[in-house]
Structure formats: structure tokens, C-alpha cells
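User: Could you write out the 3D structure of this protein bound to glutamic acid? I've included everything you need below.
Assistant: Certainly. Input first, then the structure.
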Amino acid sequence: MKELSQLLNGIPGSVTVSVNEKAKAMQAAGLDVISLAGGDPDFDTPNHIVEAAVSAIRAGKTHYPAPTKGTPEVMEAIARKTARENRITVDSKSDVIVTPGSKWALFLALAAVVNPGDEVLYLEPAWVSYPPMIRLVGGRPVAVSLPAENNFTISEELLSKAISHKTKALLINSPNNPTGRVLRREEVEVVTSTALKHNLFVIADEVYEKLIYEDRPHYSIGAEAKMAERTITTNGLSKGYAMTGWRLGWLVGPTEIIKLAAKFNSHSITSAAAFTMSAAVAALNGPQEAIEEMRRAYQDRRDFMLSAIRGIDGIECQSPEGAFYLFPRFTQTEMDSLTLSESLLKQAGIAATPGIAFGASGEKHLRFSYATAMSDLEQAAERLARVVPRL
Ligand code: PMP
Ligand code: GLU
């Protein structure tokens, strides 16, 4: 056989996806495993959204949608949501693309701005897929490691040290996976002033935007002064609306960038599924109570898990301000996070994602997802209290 793709051979598979799949396979085989691995809400999609999709299928919305970027209804719903909630003004016809999940929206955004060898900065701890995505579009991922001691705060000094004449873009994620951090006003100002000073694009991944606790404000970089023309915002329904399996996301940004992204879309996936666009209209324009209920449930779970694990010797944990992950640090063990996650699976039947998967500054941490039923969290807390002090 001739040599296969060097590019793909050089890229690791997704650890978040694989740990999650492993936990599910163990559960299916009848093993007593509590999965805190998944970034997938345990709630069902709200019924009115399901009904909208079923009606759309029955009404024959089973063909290529027109336009393929998104039907006028969904494009308008996204443009209105973006103006209302994110204070970013976009033209629904020219500045939006609906994608099968925000993962693809990120790919399109990167593909539209990156040339071979361009550097894209991302901030660690970071979601596992950022560096591979940057590589796959021909760019060079450059990690900015944010220190755990400082609760992963972005500083101008750290960012500017990583910038070179090849830096093209900065990838920002708030609320953050895995740390749960939500960008503070000062950090937003660091990001915007750095982007303006060095003429960088910003790709803002806001997929956890609906999951913020304690009334902390969510800042969209694209709404900041002079940032609209250089910011691409990606978002989607997976997390806040409990719709991971629907694969529905979008990107909004400057017309010229969206034009290029649409070309890539047209030659790759053509479009998101037509009837999921109808579901998205129902989700964005319909009642939001169910979304708020889920958010409150996550907040209760977060509070429960935080107080449970903070009482355990050998665990330190900051309070996450958003998303649905805890990112505790294991202070008394010699084990690295990979070995730690394996031991926890073996000794306590708990599946968690090793912190190293999110970059060097994630070492000594594990990621626990609390998009998991309270009864599972209660059991997990008991097992952790028993096992962690002996690790
Ligand atoms: N960004 C982050 C930070 C994520 O954790 C995820 C989770 N899969 C995504 C983007 C992509 O989500 P989706 O493709 O389901 O919209
Ligand atoms: N984003 C989720 C996670 O971090 C889902 C898996 C994935 O797409 O990476 O676990």
C-alpha cells in the first residue's frame, strides 16, 4: 500500500470522544462505571423543538435546503439571536452559515483565514480539537499556556510572548472547556487590544454561552469596538439546548470571510440537514424556559459536586463559572493525569478525562462533566471520597 496521509497520521484522535466512547462501551457491557467523561447533556431535547423537526420531516423538508448555507427562516433566527443576545449585527443573507455542529463552524472559520504556515494562537487548557483543526487547514497551532496557579487568567504578557510575524488568528473559548472559566472584562480587553495591535483575526467559540452561573456576564468579542470586522463567532445548539446529536451549529462573521467559508462548505458537506434547521428556528425563536431549567439544574449539580470534592484530601477545585465541567487538581499524588484517570476507572469505576488532553497546563487535573444525573454524581462523590486519599 502507498503511504497514507502524513497530515492525518500526525494528528491524535479526539481524547474526549474516545474516553466517552470507552465509558459507554463499558456500561453497555454491564460494568459498574459512572461516566463523568462526556460533554453531552443527559437531558432530552425540549419537546417543542423535537415536534418542529418531526413536522418538518412530515412536510417534506427532506431535500437539500435552499439556500444551502441555511434557509431564510433559520438565517434570520440566527441573525436576530446574534443581535439580541450577543450585540453583533450581521446580515442574515451574507454573514451566516448554518453547519452540522459548531465543530464544523470552527473548521470553516479557520479554513477561511489560514494560509499554509500561518500561526493560530489558542489558550491552554483548551478543548482537544483546536490544535488538530488548525493543522488540518494547514496552519501551525501555537499554545499559550495559562497557569493553573492564576486560575488560567489571560494576560497581555502571556499573549504577546507567543505572537510572531506569522500569527494570523487567536482562538478564544468562553465559557471554557475544560476549566469552566468565563472571560472577565479585563481579559476581553486584553484579547481585543492584542488583536487590534497585531492585526489578528479572532475566532470566538461561544458554544457554552447559555451555561453561565451566578449572573456573570458573557462578553462576545465580536461586539467589542472595532472587532466586528475581524471576528468570527461560532455557536450552536448542542450544549445549551441539549441537542448534541442533532448536529446544528453556525458561524457569523464579516461577509468576505463567510463567502470563502461558504465555498468550502459547498464542496464538502453542502449543508446541514434541512429539518434540523426547522428545529433550530423553534429553538431560537420559541420559549426559553426549558433552557433556563437545565442551566439551573447544572448549577445545582456543580454546587453539590464542588462541596463534595472540596472536602476530599488531595483535591483542589476552583468554582467553574460556566459550561458543565469541573477541572479539579490532584495535589497529593505522584501520578500524571493519564495514569490517574486509568486508576480512577479501575479502582472507583469513574470515567474522567485526563487533564493533559487539554494541554500542558492541564496536567495533574482531571475533567469531570456534570452533564450527568444527580444520582450518578452522588455515587461518584462517595467513591471519590473513598478512593482519592489512597491514590
Ligand atoms: N467547542 C467546544 C469548546 C466544545 O467543547 C465542543 C464540544 N463538542 C464544540 C465546540 C463542538 O460542539 P458541537 O459540534 O456539538 O456544536
Ligand atoms: N465537546 C465535548 C467534550 O469535550 C464532546 C466531545 C467532543 O466533541 O470533543 O467532551
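The chain has 13 helices and 14 strands.
User: Perfect, thank you.
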